[in-house]
Design a protein that fits this description.
Length: about 280
């Protein structure tokens, strides 16, 4: 009996010693390691719900106070995220080929890769936009280049004239017509003119006709007319005194001979069909 009591006591002592060896010390072996800090539930909620990033404390710290009433619970985080993710309806068939995206569809949850080949997607027909009518280009008036002019090429054309380049003395306006005169407000450019016929008048014998330029050029008019009477001769245009003006005096076979007047009027309109102005 005594031997049995000793054996029981020995077993109990050994069990007690083993228990103490297995449990060890309950005190922390040292300070929390670097990087052991964790975000709060509120910070996790803010990041998932609004993308607000946070920087957790570097090392784990025991809370100084109990969680406040504003701290999010795991249920609130779950409910909020589930409500947001359930709105997503994008699948790989909606995303460009090889583009990564986060899918919230059942069976395809997580990071997925797009499958749509954009190159094969039909190009929509662009909506045609009416081409606006461009504003007309306004050309500034070009003045005639004849010295002293106050008129422009536009004014010349508007009055039915033609711009003519005299080269040596500049551009003028050529007006055409029958017995054409210089228009009001314009000035004749030197002796630029043209006549048709280019010769007219003359005496009884067909001599001493007045003349003007037959082409548009800077030439004067030579206007010839009878002058002072010299004598009356017998015979008509018989070759005598042909350098004079012959006219019929009213008697048969007689000529009245006169001097010849020659003048160069600056602006003679009869028979003139073109005149240059500035």
């Amino acid at each position: 009996m005594r031997r049995a009591i000793v054996m029981v006591s020995s077993v109990m002592l050994m069990a007690g010693l083993c228990g103490m060896a297995v449990a060890g010390s309950i005190d922390s072996p040292g300070a929390p390691s670097a990087g052991s800090g964790m975000p709060t539930l509120q910070q996790i909620y803010d990041y998932l719900n609004a993308g607000i990033e946070t920087t957790p404390v570097p090392n784990f710290q025991e809370p100084l106070a109990a969680p406040g009433s504003t701290m999010k619970t795991t249920k609130e985080i779950y409910d909020t995220m589930r409500g947001i993710f359930s709105q997503g309806d994008i699948t790989a068939e909606n995303v460009e080929l090889d583009k990564k995206f986060f899918c919230t569809q059942p069976g395809s949850w997580g990071i997925q890769t797009g499958k749509v080949c954009i190159a094969g997607t039909p190009t929509p027909t662009p909506t045609s936009t009416p081409t606006p009518t461009p504003s007309p280009t306004i050309t500034p008036p070009i003045p005639l280049s004849w010295e002293g002019t106050t008129h422009t090429e536009n004014e010349c054309v508007a009055l039915g004239g033609t711009v003519y380049d005299t080269r040596a003395t500049g551009t003028i306006c050529a007006f055409s017509g029958t017995n054409v005169a210089v228009p009001s407000g314009w000035t004749k450019a030197a002796q630029w003119q043209r006549y048709s016929p280019s010769s007219w008048g003359g005496d009884l014998c067909g001599n001493h006709m007045s003349t003007g330029p037959s082409t548009f050029s800077n030439q004067i008019v030579a206007l010839k007319s009878p002058g002072t009477e010299l004598e009356v001769i017998y015979g008509r245009c018989n070759g005598y005194r042909m350098d004079k003006w012959h006219e019929w005096p009213g008697n048969n076979d007689h000529d009245r001979i006169r001097e010849i007047n020659v003048s160069n009027p600056s602006d003679y309109t009869s028979n003139r069909i073109e005149v240059g102005c500035f």
